[in-house]
């Protein structure tokens, strides 16, 4: 009897297992069926509602609102639903949603950071909609094509440029005997020297660093056209990577020459800038809204080109954490693609508005010729910062981020601590290489 | 022959009746507990990013042993376990005995105050701790004002102090929780036992070690097992206070699972393997604790 019941229970278990599988399949085909019906009913493939996920209300969400208003001019009957989540939440929801096999609950358009996009595109190949017929990858900054395309197909609409600059407090510089012009063509070593002078004269730190975030290292190596991975996007490229080695050495020099302050998270980072505790910040242009938020410092900031590496061929331009839009391969994808094509994919006028209203520097090449791009910014003493950024954007070397940026960075963060504690640089990079090779499969 | 047959039938009937009572619960447990566990086990034999999973046998399990990040996470978790759990249990025991004193006034206030941390949200209190222990946070300001330190302590960005911060945080959050168990157990101990001990001239500490601790032994076992399980699954505090850093100095196994699933390129197979390593550790530790502290029939 006991055996009989065990059998019944096992059958039940199997049944539930099977039914849950077929259930998810059903949902998929059900959605498809719904779509074809829809298409048949209303002549153009037009969904009535699309949903978009993005993070950062001051930047990405604000940009979406502009695009939404723009699209409503020609397509008033499409309801665009913008949902704000933290970036980490979007990654979780997307991963769990895509992995569960059901497309229910997924948005039509999602914002993904460039460092992560290939991991999604490659892991869930059929889940993203090919936009090759809606937009042209060549219309956007060249370094964006790597992250946003796969197998020759364009999946992402390149959005904000993570183009970097060196934001500096010109008033502190002057006290130390320097002008913004002195920072035009410097390398990181000279930057540290200036920092020492600033520290001596003003008592202010040159830079603030987060030991858990190697963004600065990423910026430095990309400026030399290198990455954590080789060009194939798979082979770890740590041992013997000369720009990476130099970047590590500069990082150590920054911490040891007593010009760096430490912060632990984003809010402390922004607080350090706004309170006047640090004299400079080399970072992506997306920091502009956070810096200008402190109105009392208007006229005290300027933006210089990024310092470069000395021993390696690097340029005064790099990228830090830009992101792009992706259309999901779910019901309503045609409408979503149409929305993207008519706004972020082609609308030069809209990019001017994004720039003046929000400060978004897009990567759409044609937009850079617009009027808003050549205007001076009062906060930065009338400096034409956007024109500068646009010019630097064109110089950013293109690298293949691959799918393991953050996995490798976590290995490097630990090795960086070892390095700062006195471990030899070559064994630091060799050990990181060995660990990366064993972990990335 | 006839007799045995009817007996068999009767037994069958009673078994059936019994099962019909528990059937619903059994089905639900199978569907919502055992099925996901089985799926996770199957997943732990697969590798690949996101949806591209392939069976690779025991690859993930052998990878565990050579994975430095995993080993560091295990080490960190056990440091928390060995330092924090005994500390918290002794503290909870001590406080509960103090609060059980019949002569103590404002008992309700103290009990509430010490239990209150347990009802706060894990994320909310972690964020508050992060700000209290920030470089220019309240704790450092106080220490500096009192001249206990000459320079601010790097609570969050120094590997050693970050661990201490986490330990302080979880002790604050969970001591009151364990205290409640001890308090309720203490109230079941007959006062006359203590009276008899006092008449015999036993000191307070003698009463504590001779009466209170032995009588609370089952509860101590219970709290230490639940605390062990809780610590092995520690996630929220580390995620919110230090994000596992600096480097991976405070990273726990649960956070590593999160990183493998969501921070890196979605390696759910390997993440499931790491999850199963926690299951195995908890099972082993619980058995050891039962053997060391449990009664023979416990």
Topology:
The complex is a heterodimer of chains A (441) and B (298).
Chain A: H1 2-41, E1 49-54, H2 57-74, E2 79-84, H3 87-100, E3 109-113, H4 114-123, H5 145-148, E4 149-150, E5 153-154, E6 156-158, E7 164-169, H6 170-175, H7 188-202, E8 207-209, H8 215-223, H9 242-256, E9 260-262, H10 266-274, E10 280-284, H11 288-292, E11 301-304, E12 323-327, H12 333-342, H13 348-358, H14 385-395, H15 405-420, H16 425-439
Parallel strand pairs in A: 1-2, 1-3, 8-9
Antiparallel strand pairs in A: 3-12, 4-5, 6-12, 7-10, 7-11
Chain B: H1 2-43, E1 46-47, E2 54-55, H2 59-66, H3 68-99, H4 107-115, H5 122-132, H6 138-145, H7 159-186, H8 191-199, H9 204-232, H10 236-241, H11 253-263, H12 268-293
Antiparallel strand pairs in B: 1-2
Helix pairs in contact in B: 3-7, 3-9, 7-9, 9-12, 11-12
Structure description:
The complex is a heterodimer of chains A (441) and B (298). In chain A, 47% of the residues lie in helices and 11% in strands. Chain A has 441 residues and is an alpha/beta fold. In chain A, the strands form four sheets. In chain A, strands 2-1-3-12-6 form a five-stranded mixed beta sheet. Chain A has a three-stranded antiparallel beta sheet with strand order 10-7-11. Chain A is globular. The radius of gyration of chain B is 25 Å and the shape is flat. Chain B starts with a helix and ends in a 5-residue tail after the last helix. The relative contact order of chain B is 0.13.
